[in-house]
Protein: ABC-2 type transport system ATP-binding protein
Organism: Tamaricihabitans halophyticus
Amino acid sequence: MDYTATVDSWRYRDRRALGKLNAMTKPVIEVSDLRCAYGAFEAVRGLTFEVHKGELFALLGTNGAGKTTTLETIEGHRKPSSGAVRVLGADPVSQRSWVRQRCGIMLQESGFAGDLTVTETVQLWQGILGISSIVEDGLARLNLTHRRDVRVKQLSGGERRRLDLVLATLGQPEVVFLDEPTTGLDPQSREATWQVVRELLAGGTTVLLTTHYLEEAERLAHRLAIMHEGRFAVAGNLADVLETELAQLGFDLGDGVRVAELPALFGELDELALAEGRVQIRTARLQDDLQAVLGWAAARGVALRRLRAHHASLDDVFHRVAGGARAEISTEVTVR
Ligand SMILES: Nc1ncnc2c1ncn2[C@@H]1O[C@H](COP(=O)(O)OP(=O)(O)OP(=O)(O)O)[C@@H](O)[C@H]1O
């Protein structure tokens, strides 16, 4: 049985139900016109969004887009320059200890004491949080049991990341912040991490995540935002985000076929690709244009070589945003 597929389809089926439920409940994380500056430089420029109970919201974006600054500000590590942040209804700066007790935080870089063993580190963290829960399960699920007596400084980068996650999820926090949780992990460890995150969500934990892995956001996020230069360039659920980019239809222009002979299409022809002998069309009406091309080819007896028709992927959207082609997208996205 493909467990991943089952979990993912469950997520998609359940998303609508979660949305209806969430419309009736107070958000767990509320961010309103958030701005954060380092001196004269404004790294975060007016973000507004909410995250509801049991929901995972993913922040994607290019290096320096402002993801970590946003996350750390919501965690209460710094005051916003302006705007408002509420976590579980409280101000994460002025009510820090109340909020902190209810949150698990996985920073981008851990600040472990290298001379402590894995077990000692967990025990220390349990002491700080006043938790006496048994962590064997957490260590086992993230494949760290056999490393429990190893000093932290002797762990690999991926093992440290997994230890970070064990610590962030100690004591069943209501909210978990994950800053690039799977960077540097091998595929197996990444899958184990995703499984832990799915279990947290199923238990009602709310998760705010930053990642550079588009697949991670596709697999886990109920909603996501792609940041660029401190703003949300595009945001919403996966379908909303994919709809912001046109679909693509392409095939090689065979010998003896002239461009003028092509059927009328709704999409726009890529002149650069055409110069290299390929018909490449970006279109908002993929089905109509595909039908027109197939009908035309059948009528003329043209074989369409390397025919490819596909809706936009998250990768396509990301590259458009990263390429700075933001004129086509609203930069004032409000996510509610
Ligand atoms: N302490 C700081 N002082 C000055 N500028 C900072 C500081 N921290 C971050 N910045 C700047 O703020 C901007 C946003 O940084 P941030 O780390 O939030 O981005 P990011 O999206 O998390 O990037 P990455 O994907 O590389 O982690 C960048 O231009 C960065 O150089």
Residues 125 and 296 are 67 Å apart (CA to CA).
